[in-house]
Amino acid sequence: MMEPKSIFLLGLLLFRVGKLMRNDKLAWSAEYEAKKFKFYHNTSLFLTLQSTGPEMTNLCKKSWCDKVDDYFVVPHHYVNWQKPTEQWLIHHFSKMILHTRRLPQQAQWYMFAFDNNYFFVERLIKELSKFDSHLPIYTILRDFHADIQHKPVLIFSRSALNTFYDLEEENCSENAENVEEWLTTCMSIPPITISVDRSKKSRIFAIKRHFQVDEMKTMPNDYHDDKDYIHRHSSSLLSFTNLSLEDLKLLPIFVEKVQGGYKKKAASKILF
Amino acid sequence: MISLLLVFLSQISLILGAPQTILCLIHTATPSHETRAKTILETWVQHCDDFLFFTDSKMNDSIPHIYYPLLNSRDHSWEKIRRVFKYVRDKITKKYDWYYRADDDTYALMHNMRTLLDNYSPTKHHYLGLQWNFFTPRGFNDGSSYILSRPTMEAFNEVMLDPDRCPDHHRAEEDQELAKCLAHMEIYPEDIRDEMGSERIQHFHPLEQLTIYKDTFNRRLAYYPAMKEDENFSDKMISFHHVSPYEMRLMDYIFYRLDKP
User: Fold this and answer.
1) Minimal Cα distance from B91: which residue of A?
2) What are the structural domains of chain A?
3) Average pLDDT over residues A56-81
4) Structural domain tally of chain B?
5) Which of residues 199-238 of A touch B (CB under 8 A)?
6) From its phi and psi, is residue A29 left (phi > 0), alpha (psi between -120 and 50) or beta?
7) What residues of B are in contact with residue A220 (Cβ under 8 Å)?
8) In what order do the strands lie in the sheet with A43-50?
9) What is the domain-level CATH number for residue B145?
């Protein structure tokens, strides 16, 4: 028969061990964001967001991230601060995807993105709802009109995620040239395409030049306003990507707050 | 009798319901003809009823413009705007309800301007813009973007004839001089902030506007206190200032092409 004092100490020890096991530091082999994950049912979209810095991530959280069903933020100190290569992206996306096995949720779709994005979440969910999440479906979102390197966004159905878990060890060599090649080989099926509209305009808009004071000084010679590039993008945009901090400060205001207008007939010339 | 009354009422309703017309006057200069002016021409100015660039050298004949080769520096602004409004009154046959003057680094949302102007009678004196609290007792509207009703434009032309009340001298700050002249006609800036107290017209770049409430100059000289961060942007913004042609294109895409779900 144990003494009450021993029982108390044992109980305290068990409590502390239990707390330690729930500690986020053990789960991801590093730190989690301090966020509790709730069990939910019939959830559409779960986001794993790679932070590149607290300011960027907070701006995402205040705007579009709030519209997904739930999200998890990977801390920013796991990001290679040099310009990420495709090989680094492959390796990091692999870790992000595999990590979802540890999360207690049952979403229909899983998105993996960096925090330099601004998504039109309602439109994205509407697009995804056209597909059966019980099928192994995945997509890679990139702006194929952009001639700049930028990070893609990956979206998997629940079924595709399970396929990735199963095939990851056998098929998913990280020696591919790019994310597209890596995933197509890994999954043994090609991705679906939702990143272009019927007019072949891109629904992903990679921002090449950023909002800044004195923007004209960034192009002192042969300045142009990039009209052609901008007009190559769809009106039914899914996201802006490759955003700077300044872009993320202004885009929510322009998109969500300020009321836009509609095309009016062209102004006539003044008759003298 | 009844039919006459019905015809009369229908005519009244036509007059009252007729959309207000706006002539846009854009200040540019030779170095900006192929950049700023070109972008404005292809974007927001198309939403004006008519427009006229005023500059210091000839533009393409297809672009409505007037130019003053001898008034080719910023310090000539006051002389230029006097001549522009005189030209508008004397040489342009069409009568507009409103006259909107803008810089060539301004991006305007004309549909929001029309919504604002629906609250004002174009037959009365109105002088609308972003108000500063210095130079004249009741302040002046920022030169980047301001709106005059037709009677105000006429009053300006009238007071210009009086060199004591509205002298023609060499000065860059045409916005201040305009306010001083209009004050002699008892026309003063009006409060056009929205119901939340946010300005509809901005002077500084949008990024600077996010923190302008901290700026010493603005705190001291703005007529109304600036709101903080995104509250500083009205949902019915009329114009942004200090934006580049690229930023104008991107904003034009966001405001006029992008379907917002």
Assistant:
1) A272
2) 42-259 (3.90.550)
3) 89
4) 1
5) 207, 209, 211-216, 223-227, 230-231, 233, 235-237
6) left
7) none
8) A70-74, A43-50, A107-114, A153-157, A138-141
9) 3.90.550.50
